Amino acid sequence: KNQVEQSPQSLIILEGKNCTLQCNYTVSPFSNLRWYKQDTGRGPVSLTIMTFSENTKSNGRYTATLDADTKQSSLHITASQLSDSASYICVVTEGDSSYKLIFGSGTRLLVRP
Amino acid sequence: ETGVTQTPRHLVMGMTNKKSLKCEQHLGHNAMYWYKQSAKKPLELMFVYNFKEQTENNSVPSRFSPECPNSSHLFLHLHTLQPEDSALYLCASSQKTGTSNPDEQYFGPGTRLTVT
Predict the structure, then answer these.
(1) Counting runs of H as helices and runs of E as strands, what totals does chain A give?
(2) Residue of A nearest to B92 (CA)
(3) Which of A45, A51, A101 sits opposite B45 (nearest CB)?
(4) In terms of CA atoms, which chain A residue is nearest residue B104?
(5) Contact (Cβ atoms closer than 8 angstroms) between residue A91 and residue A106
């Protein structure tokens, strides 16, 4: 069964610290992997999209990595800010259908002052 | 905001009611989506419309009925819902290019639905 597993489920860090969120997937065939940020009460907003041939992509203080061999991805947040408090969702696209998105359950991040 | 709007933002309805959720995208996209997000569960794709034609119905019960009158508007008609249908319903849109490049999905803020 195609699945996307994220860890940890929740995380609390102090403002200014770095953190790394993990995503493991079993989706096959694989097309691309996305990271979304979802603030409470809002829709998800895309942070990065990576295809099979890409192993790292940055968006400001967010850096995503992808290891297609081990089927793992990570999202690294540098110098965290209070506004980074949100759920971070890993999403894998199955096959060549760009709308068959398999969503992870997300990691809830809380950044404290 | 993202250019995708949804109304209402909150809805409480009884199991015998009929209501509709509305989504509008102002991005000129050609594909629209309905998702369901239940508490502590991953987002679930419900319906996909590509150029106003439904191309995906992800085994959704018939008490959910989508309608896409044009490429900018998407509705989700609700009738005789169950309490377990309470969730955040998200609409999204994207521009399908017909190439292998992944198309970005832009989400609306969602409608928080409570079925009593």
Answers:
(1) 0, 11
(2) A43
(3) A101
(4) A46
(5) no
Q: Which residue of A has its CA nearest to B49?
A: A99
DSSP run (H or E) holding A15: none
Interface test with A, best of B29, B41, B43 (most A CBs within 10 A): B43
The answer to whether A45 contacts chain B (CB < 8 Å) is: yes
Chain A: nearest CA to B60, how far in angstroms? 15
Q: Tell me the pLDDT tens digit for each residue of B21-67.
A: 999 999 999 999 999 999 878 999 999 988 777 777 778 999 999 99
CB B110 to CB A44 under 8 A?
no
At B103 the pLDDT is 79
CB proximity A103 to B under 8 Å: yes
Predicted pLDDT at B99: 65
Q: What order of strands is seen across the sheet that includes strand A72-77?
A: A4-7, A19-25, A72-77, A62-67, A56-59
Structure confidence by residue, pLDDT tens digits, A51-100: 888 999 999 999 999 999 999 999 999 999 999 999 999 999 887 666 67
Instruction: Report residue A13: phi and psi, to 5°.
Output: -135, 165
Closest in B33, B43, B56 to A103, CB measured:
B43
Strands B10-13 and B111-115: parallel
Q: Which residue has better confidence, A107 or A97?
A: A107
Pairing of strands A86-94, A101-103: antiparallel
pLDDT in tens, A26-56: 988 888 999 999 998 889 999 999 988 899 9
